[in-house]
């Protein structure tokens, strides 16, 4: 259906240093809605910068607003964060960000998804990710998802 198509007003591009405070705000805003029960999360700019250190952050822009972001750690083929702001969920923004984040990755690619986040699990499973492990010992236990991407052609 139409929900699968990324909104035409959304542009995907790498984050700059100037974007990082707005990224931290978006992550905090979305996290507070979906993980309101999680008292252990530390919010704010410093926490976001620590969590994404060494990662490639890519943004979805809707006009002058950030609609979502993905953060990947290329050395481990690991998708660490994928957040879509609340008004943009279900519009294809997450799918477009995930495709952008997986660019230049190959082979076994992994991400973690909180067990409590059912909509995210359905999202990843629809896109071909499969659960391979569980971890954790509190309500924020997580699934490890795996997807085999095509190998890079030889340079």
Short description:
The protein is an alpha+beta fold.
Plain-language structure description:
The chain is an alpha+beta fold and 155 residues long. The chain contains 4 helices and 7 strands. The protein has a 7-stranded mixed sheet with strand order 1-2-3-4-5-7-6. Strand 3 (65-73) and strand 4 form a beta hairpin. It is globular.
Give the tags:
single chain; 155 residues; alpha+beta; 7-stranded mixed β-sheet; 7 strands
Name the average pLDDT.
87
SSE arrangement, N to C: EHHEEEHEHEE
Distance between the first and last residues' Cα:
38 Å
Annotation field: number of helices: 4
- Poorly predicted spans: none
Strand numbers in spatial order across the main sheet: 1-2-3-4-5-7-6
Number of E-type strands: 7
The geometry reads as globular
SS class: alpha+beta
Multimeric state: single chain
Beta percentage is 25-35%
Element layout with pairings:
Blueprint: E1 10-14, H1 20-34, H2 45-51, E2 56-62, E3 65-73, E4 78-84, H3 93-102, E5 107-114, H4 118-126, E6 130-135, E7 142-149
Helix pairs in contact: 1-2
